[in-house]
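Q: I have two molecules that I believe assemble together. Could you output structure tokens for the complex as a whole instead of separate predictions?
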Amino acid sequence: MNPSNPPQAAEYGGDEVSAIVLDPGYSTTRAGFAGEDAPKSVIPTYYGKYNYEGKERLVFGDNMFVQPRAGISVHNPIGKDGIVEDWDMAEKVWEYSFASRLTATKPDNPFHNGLNDISSEELPAEMEVETDEKPLADTPLLMSEPGWNPAKAREKTIEIAMEKWGTPAFYLARNGVLAAFASGKASALVIDIGASNISVTPVHDGMILKRGVQHSPLGGDYISSQIRALFKKNSPQPITITPHYLISSKTAVEAGQPPQANYRTFPADRAPDASYRALQEERTLAEFKECVVQTWPGPNKLSGPGPRESQTKNSLAARRAVFGVDRFRVVESLFDVKAAIPDPDSPVPAPTQAQTLPEVIKASLAGVDVDIRPHLLSNVVVTGASSLVYGFTERLNQELMTLFPGPRVRVSAPGNTSERRFGSWIGGSILASLGTFHQMWISKKEYEEHGANIVEKRCK
Amino acid sequence: MAAAADVRDMLDLPAESQPRPHKKQKVVEKRPEGITRELYALLGERAPPIAINENKYKGRPKLLNKLRVRQWRMSPFANGARSDGLVLNHWQRKHEGARQPAPEGTQMDVDVDGTKEEGKEDTKPLEQEYTFAKYNVKAQLPRRYTDDEYSRHLRNNEWTREETDYLMDLVAEYDLRWVLIADRYEYQPRMDSEPEGNAIVPAKTVRTMEHMKARYYFIAATMLAIEHPPSEMSEAEFEWHEKMLKFDPNRERDRKELAALQLNRTADEVREEAMLLEELKRITSNEQSFISERRELYSRLEVPVSVGNTAMYQSSQGLSQLLQTLLQADKSKKRRSILGPDGAVASPAAGQTPTQAGGPVSRGDTPSANAAASATNNNNKKGPAVPPTLPVVRQLTAAEESRYGIQHHERVTAGVQFRSDRAQKLTQAKSNVQTQKLAGALAELEIPVRLFMPTERVCKDFEKLIQSVNVLLEARKVSEKVESEIRVLEASRAERERKAREAAGETTAADPENPEVKTEAEDGTGVLGSTAEAAGSGGEKGEGGDGENAEEAAKDDGNHKRSASVLSAVSDKSNKRQRR
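A: Yes, here they are, computed for all two components at once.
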């Protein structure tokens, strides 16, 4: 094929309008240009807050992890159920996600760059108007939201996009729908295993079925809490998690031996907040999840035979430990509530049977018409970073087969890690670059005419 | 490779210890591109492990270089499917006819209001129809009812006007996707409109998809009927109308319940069903093979339909003909069975036809064809006049057949044999004594042992004669035997009478053996008497029929041979009794 020829428009139905796709989540916020295969900007949704010279300062993105500033505390604008709680900070975090990487840095205002300094009283008034340029003044914006996002939150979102960012066109899509699009399906049962939530979204013809949307808090953070409980129970002595920033040097030790490392200590007045340490520990646990944690493949109960082959892990504060069957146990309670490791001190409440994944799926399917249930079961889409736990999809398939022995069950989960992590962003990228989609945008004009309520009418 | 050697010299490297294989020199010829010959020669025999040719930018193909660079521009466009005139930018190839591109800054402008400051440059693409606008299609929905129409046709106790409107709006919004409509259906009756009504009858009743469908279909059908009365409807419209009118929500609900049952089967039920399906598959496949086998069987037994009329069989001539054909068919069947299944399979239809119908078709069979052939052979004079075609054969009567010497053999033996030989064979009996007796009888009749003129008829008569002679001889034998028996019995009776007379004065006590003997004798006489009678009647009967047969036989044959044969049969019986 001659590369100087553009692909025929009809071949893929694409028509790029250089839109930005923003997929905010509890743990990370993804942003990038539509038409690309991965988000260019992936930042943590957490932000840091600290005092410096008497003024409160904020730190966004990965910058937070670079330096443990004195008294830095970590917050998340999004609540545990995935709905935004702190709108001001959510707006700032989201803006940071695209403004830091995507929207071109505009040249400084010549009046402010120091080259044309003139006394402030001479500043012409009309020039002031030009200075508050909106960050998205020339890019349409597609945002995603969870399926159970309340109408108020949706209206608030479009308000921010239109008024604060000045986007010419906006659309709010459900992340379940987008994840289905990312796997090329218009109808699917999307199972999203996120950080704070697992959600099951039935999608029919590119629209969610509201009565079938279910979510439960047994996400990646819950798995972390289970790991913490496991460490606490460890014998002969509990394992403590030491995040990387507290270790200045370490030497490798044999498994089971006490760690040999030099720790950094911070004086009380310069130490970061406990929430900062918790977030850093979470990063360590994420590594643990990636390397050690595994889903019991079934079909028998986990509480059966003795320990399997062991794996070692050495990044827990220069510690090396051997984990046998325990590495299955931490995920098992996603499927079987009886396998949960009890931890009365944990802030995470113990799960109930109704919150386990099979029950959630069952409840979700009960909420949709019986005629489309078999079709949904044969189009199960798994997305979300926590679904990358080793052996998860196989187990899920197993569970679905036992739940529904009759109809054909087909779980489609992209093997590519980034496709799994950014499933809904990729779907948004596809959607926003479709030529047929451009009639769906809510334009600024429509917003001004109808008000924020239009998002309820248009983004169904 | 002088250069390599030079280098070795210069670097004080030892000379090549072993001469390089000759083959390798040939291979070396290929020189990668982008390296001069001299430099390449310096490399020696061992090529470096890294690629030494740089990847050069190849540039555009020469042909394309001659073309002008086609420009792409970020150009605004409006979407015809939108009503608000949103203008977005996308990259588009610059049209050849277009004038100088507008300055960069203006192109990036997003013109929300649709007013354009740049002028004609950008209006041009805007006027084009947007490619994807054509995909903006809506489902075809019935016309909305007016207030009048609603009150006249569409009133329903279960549905308020407002809820109906809400339903119709949803239907239009979701393009008749009922799954979505049912999912999003959240009708809340307005509290202020009917304050007294909704206290009792609020829309707490959950509308199921079937309810909504029933309502919608009713409305759609009614609107269709208002638009076109059923008499004026086109066929498709009428069908549609009927379908919508016949929608039964209860049935649909039942169906869904069944579907849910089917979906929520347990693993055991699924397994059982799979097993049953497997069984069913097996049964059907068995049945298939059974049917095909049976069909094959039927095709073998196929009964051809008789087409000819039966009139031709009503005369005696026709009947005899039928008999002939049946016989032949029988013969042919027998022969085929001897031939084995192969022969039968080869011409099943031809084999079956004569047995069943014996109709005109049957004459096509081989035996009759043979007969026809023999007819032509036997009768050379008539040969050309009687072509061996079927209708001619059929017309031959019995008289004609005998005239032409046509014969039908029970079994045609292989090979050629003389008729006289066959006649000769008859004179040879099993035992020599018998043969001599036969010869004696023939001599007595003045018939030569070897026939002078062994025509068909003569042979037949000779055969009969020999048979009669045989019968006679047999009869003579039997009669001799009987006579001797009679003599013995008479002698024994005389003996007994003599004894009885002697013992008349003495005791009357009977000898235990006597009654037995007596009964034996009575039995024998009784049988003899009856046989004599039978012989008499048989003889009388036989006389009429056989008279002419015996022209060459003895004059007194008629009675005797018959009675003799009967006698022999009966005497056999009596012999048996005696033996018992």
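A: One point stands out. The domain at 220-339 of chain A is CATH 3.90.640.10 (Actin; Chain A, domain 4).
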